[in-house]
Amino acid sequence: MDNIVIIGSSGHAKVIIDIVQQQGKYNIVGLLDRFRDVGEKTLGYPVLGKEEDLPELIKAHALKGAIVAIGDNFVRSKVVAHIKEIIPDLPFVSAIHPKASIAMEVSIGEGTVVMAGVSINACSSVGRFCILNTNSSLDHDSILEDFASLAPGATTGGNCRVGQFSAVSIGAVLIHGIHVGEHTVIGAGSLVMKSIESFVVAYGTPARAIRNREQGDKYL
Hints:
By secondary structure, the protein is an alpha/beta fold. The protein has 2 domains: 2-86, Rossmann fold (3-Layer(aba) Sandwich); 95-207, UDP N-Acetylglucosamine Acyltransferase, domain 1. Helix content is 16%, strand content 32%. The protein is built from 3 helices and 24 strands. The strands form 5 sheets. An 8-stranded mixed β-sheet has the order 6-9-12-15-18-21-23-24, with helices on one face. The protein has a 5-stranded mixed β-sheet with strand order 3-4-2-1-5, sandwiched between helices. A 5-stranded parallel β-sheet has the order 8-11-14-17-20, with no helix packed on it. Strand 3 and strand 4 form a beta hairpin. The chain is globular. The relative contact order is 0.10.
């Protein structure tokens, strides 16, 4: 198995560690976290350093790839960009839980995490560095663009599109054919019956845009 490192060491990293172990494709040598001391552990895996230590760690551990374990979509993109500046050729691997259901003609981009109970139906496209959380569902012919996420239990109908950096929160539902713009957050438990524009927070039943949001605003 190829050696990999996980960037991040909090709750989201714990889930990814479990997925990688169950997937059985990669060997985790440790974690990177600039906010923790070297040697501290998460689920038995030590913190090896921070992103800037990658050149030395690649040589020391024969690393063949990395996964960024950061839940916030925009923060995850900044970390990915920083790593690409340090090590442009380092591959980012995807973690797909063996209990996820991936249908025919589905594409999944690099660095994406697919958790247990996820359903991705036929002819759907999942972009780079996305997160599909536990028991979320992306129905047929739908698109989840780069750095977008579906929270636990979030569900889309067919022919939906979720724009870059957007987040569909816990238990939210998008009916068939809905488009969500970029950098938008759909609130927990919302029912989205009309398409939602970019750079807004929308929630309710039916969901509507409540306020604007800026790129990088916190939502977790």
